[in-house]
Design brief:
Layout: E1 2-4, E2 7-11, E3 17-21, E4 42-44, H1 59-72, E5 74-76, E6 90-92, H2 96-104, E7 113-115, E8 125-127, H3 128-139, E9 144-145, E10 152-153, H4 156-165
Amino acid sequence: MHLVGKVICLQGLSGFDLLYSTGWNTSDQAVGPSKASNQQPIHTNLTMYPTQLNNGWNAEDVASLIENGHLEKYSTCRWILPNYMPCNETVKGRDFSNHLRDRHGVTGAPSSQHRCRWEGCLERDFNRDCLIRHLREQHLMWRWPCPTCDQDFTRKNTMFEHRDRSCPRRFV
């Protein structure tokens, strides 16, 4: 359902849109529906307006949408600098690895060891790739909700494993 001007469009059968007048009064002072709202359908073909929702999304599509949200979200970096003050730079999720490399010296081979210097973190040393995953899971709070029971997981693959094997609603 979409509101197009003052008309609601519902996807009808065989590609036609089913239109309903919303009954909005068009006078300058009016701000709500008129009392003489007529809900009679008008059949027409308005292919220029997208009127059908995508009901064919699967869990992988939802996970991709969530991941894109994580990548586009801005977070404040709380990495402790050599002067014992937090970095406080605002960084987009997709740029956090580059930020760690360029600003905080998290470089080297994927197996190179680095300590998490996030404010308040007492964790041990990590491989570079594990450190980035640790930051996303523990400090940036990236979460992956199960599409059927809404239980949260820190890793996407763990959410899929839960959904496929142990989700209490997987057969519902």
